[in-house]
Design a protein that fits this description.
Helix 1 packs across helix 3, helix 2 crosses helix 3 and helix 4 runs parallel beside helix 9. This protein folds into two domains: 144 residues, Rossmann fold (3-Layer(aba) Sandwich); 65 residues, Putative phosphatase, domain 2 (DNA polymerase, domain 1), CATH 1.10.150. Strands 5-4-1-6-7-8 form a six-stranded parallel beta sheet, sandwiched between helices. It has a two-stranded antiparallel ribbon with strand order 2-3. The protein is α/β, with parallel strands linked by helices.
């Protein structure tokens, strides 16, 4: 069995780094956000989509905002990040039982790999699939498809695990089952509406579910 795992809000809690990076980018446009909680909506979806949806940015503004975001993120925000309790143990246990774990994230692939190395988790992941810095692969469905094709496996051999509707929708686009985790940044209503096949409240219950699916 292959477990495709989202990164932000699923493996690690990256709220501080992401929201501070967004706030840094918005200041370039004269927009000040005092309450970083208001920027939680940026955790999970493709970054450009969020600047369009929540601030009405056009294409040129989105490009400039993403560049500014990356200025802060690549030097500081990437490290303002913590693992969820029990995640290291989960990864250790599922790989010991013979499952393959794949990272499937909308975060640019170089940043995703750097985060795994920072937490010393790269040894648990058999493949890392992320977005591309040039914007050619951004949507979660495209990231999942890239991973499936690169590994040469069928959708029935894998399950997508994530905290936002984009993870569930991306899985459905690729005819995969999905697990919605409720400890991240998507709530029960969002994940149920997207059609998640299973919902789990915490990392311990996630590990128990994965054990039952193996």
């Amino acid at each position: 069995m292959y477990y495709f795992m989202d990164l932000d809000g699923t493996v690690s809690d990256s709220k501080e780094g992401i929201t501070k990076s967004v706030a840094y980018a918005l200041r370039r446009f004269g927009i000040s956000v005092d309450n970083l909680d208001a920027l939680e909506v940026f955790i999970g979806p493709p970054l450009g989509d969020s600047f369009r949806e929540y601030y009405g940015f056009d294409g040129e503004q989105v490009t400039a905002a993403v560049e500014a975001y990356r200025e802060y993120f690549k030097t500081r925000g990437i490290f303002e990040n913590v693992l969820y309790d029990g995640m290291r143990e989960l990864l250790e246990h599922v790989t010991e039982r013979g499952a393959k774990v794949v990272l499937a994230t909308s975060k640019p692939e170089p940043f995703a790999k750097q985060i795994l190395e920072y937490f010393d988790l790269q040894k648990y992941f058999s493949f890392v699939a992320g977005s591309t810095l040039d914007g050619k692969r951004i949507k979660k469905g495209d990231v999942i498809r890239y991973a499936l094709e690169s590994l040469g496996i069928a959708p029935q051999e894998a399950v997508m695990i994530g905290d936002r509707k984009h993870d569930v929708i991306g899985a459905k686009e690729n005819k995969m089952k999905s697990v919605g985790v409720l400890y991240g940044y998507g709530d029960r209503a969002e994940l149920e509406a997207a059609g998640a096949d299973w919902l789990v409240e915490d990392v311990r219950r996630l590990e128990a579910l994965l054990h039952s699916l193996a």
